[in-house]
Amino acid sequence: MKIIGLGWIIWLALVVGSVRAQDIPAAVSNTVSPEQMNTAFGVPLWVDDNLWAQTIEDVARRLKACEESNTEKESCYRVQTDRILGVHPENMKLIGKDGKMDAVLIMFANKGDTLGMAPDQEEYAAPKEFKEALIKFQERERQLAKTIRTQGDLIEQTLKGLLGNYTKQRFGEGNKTTELVKTWHWTNHVFMLSEQKDASLSLRIVSAACAGTRGKAVQVTDTDLRAELKTRVVHRDNGDVVVTGIPMIDQGEKGYCVPTTWARFLRYMGIPADEYVLANAAQTKKGGGTSNVQMLAAVTQMVKQNRRTIKTVTGRITLNQVAKYIDNGLPIMWSMYSVGPFEDVGQSADRMGSESPEAWKQSLKTARKAAKQLKPALDRMHVCMIIGYNPRTDEIAISDSWGLRHAEKWYTLDEVQAVSQNEMFVIAW
């Protein structure tokens, strides 16, 4: 056996010590205190070393968060803060399941929030104002990749200083919606930094168990899911038939109606989904706009992995057609033109007041007549969900991804037919 001298041992130690940090597997850090984590993050997220034992209401109250969505099974709160890990976030969300904390999603620079909607010349009174807005948008667009890279480097260095070296893993439901992320571990928390070139920068905080399954959904049998969805259908005395329990996501001031609405539908069906990941997978344009074809390609694998299928329904919308799915607890993804009564209009669930359904139907004659004058505008495409119908008044209920105020709005069947693209999608069996 050849004996290595002391000089060689010292040389070998120096070489090993020079190996890049990212090549060394990260260990679970248990030495950092919750107080140190709160100081680094800039918000009092932790009271102990197990965030997942906390109720989401307690965490939301501590962070003074605002409710975005609250269903029987999951809830979401938005946190307003100027700095996370020394970087300005676009938004921060607390996600809860069955009343407990389940995840934290922090979005930094991204092509949706950071850029906003591309300026529309029709919305400006003077050409000069439009030109100025366009120049500002184009400048943000040019700087986006650099902003993402710079913010990513800062966050990475902060987390490395706090928790040590990172490892890499894949996280997500399918090929197009799976991301390669840098991960750090602290007690039972996994921090996942996702940097998508020229598209988005995000940090997810999940449990070790969630990270171990790559965030995939727990499989539910067809029989169990069918039975559960049936319980979500509400029949009101006034004739309304409505699907309830659909998570709300507020897309904000960005053209994310397609990925946001699909994320709501997928989560309703028990399939974890993130509107930003979907937007990247479907190549949502900077400034807004997503192709239904590309989105279907992105979500189809996610749906198939959960033993479901996506049905495409074409043709003129009818109440019987809508009832076929709503009666079984299945919302409908609906492509339409956002014109006429659909711009900041829509009746609420209590629209009838003390009137009978028959009297209310008579009062809708004017709206039905006006619907004949609606002309679809090809440049105002939009996607939302059909969530209900009323056979006694010939109305349809719509849900838009613009916050709780738009969770349920009612229109006459004539209005819906007038602005429909005659294309719908349903996740079914």
Short description:
This protein has 429 residues and is α+β, with helices and mostly antiparallel strands.
Describe the structure.
- The protein folds into two domains: 14-212, no CATH class; 222-428, Cathepsin B, Chain A.
- 33% of the residues lie in helices and 24% in strands.
- The chain is built from 13 helices and 16 strands.
- The protein is globular.
- The N and C termini lie far apart (67 Å).
- Residues 1-27 have low confidence and may be disordered.
Strand order of the largest sheet: 1-2-3-4-8-7-6-5
Largest sheet geometry: 8 strands, antiparallel
- In total, the number of strands is 16
Ends apart, CA distance between termini: 67 Å
Could you spell the SSE succession in H and E letters? HHHEEEEHEEEEHHEEHHHEHEHHEEEHE
Number of domains: 2
Structural class: alpha+beta
CATH topology of the largest domain: Cathepsin B, Chain A
Proportion of strand residues: 15-25%
CATH architecture of the largest domain: Alpha-Beta Complex
Q: Pick out the low-confidence regions.
A: 1-27
Question: Looking at the structure, what is the overall shape?
Answer: globular
Q: What average pLDDT do the residues reach?
A: 89
CATH superfamily of the largest domain: Cysteine proteinases
CATH class of the largest domain, anyone? Alpha Beta
- Helix percentage: 25-40%
Gyration radius, to the nearest Å?
A: 25 Å
Query: With helices defined by DSSP (H or I, 4 residues minimum), what is the helix count?
Result: 13
